[in-house]
Specification:
- The protein has 175 residues and is an alpha/beta fold.
- The chain is 35% helix and 17% strand.
- Strand 4 (105-111), helix 4 (119-131) and strand 5 form a beta-alpha-beta unit.
- It is globular.
- The relative contact order is 0.17.
Length: 175
Amino acid sequence: MDSITIISATNRPDSNTEKVARYYATVLKAMGEESNILSLKNLPESILHSDLYGLRSPEFHKIIETYVEHHQKFIFITPEYNGSFAGILKVFLDAIPPRMWMDNKACLVGVSTGRAGNLRGMEHLTNILNYLKVNVYHNKLPISRVDTLMDGLGNLADEETRKVIETQVAGFLRF
C-alpha cells in the first residue's frame, strides 16, 4: 500500500490549513491508509535561489525523496491567498521536475475564512496540475469560514464538515 502525501500548502506558521491537513491524516488512518504531511513551512529557504533552478540543496532533495518521488496520490490543502492559492505552492510545484508529477492523482481541498472556500484557487491549481498531467479528483471540497469550524484546541469540530471530508476521502481512495 502506497502512502498518500498531504500537502499543507502554505508557509504560514500555526495555520488552519495545517490543522485541516492533520484531520485528513486522521481520517486516512481510520480508513486503514498511510499518509504523511508535508507542510510547506518546512521548505528550505534556498528554494527560491537554487532549488527552483535545479541546484538541489540536500534539504530539498530529502523533501522530494520523502514526499513526492515514490508517491502517486496527493491531497492538497490550499488556503485562499488573494483569490488563488499561496505562491509558495507554485514555487514548490515549479521546483520539482514535471515528470515526477505525471500520471499521479490529486485531491483538492480549499480553505478560507471567507465564504467561498478558495474555489478560484482550486480551479487555478486544477489547471496547473492538468498541465503537469496529474489526474485531479472531481470532488473538490471548499471549506468556508474554517476558523469557525475549529474548537478551542484547533481541532476540526464541525460534524457536517467532518462527514463531507470522510465522503471525499473515501471517494478519492477509490479514484
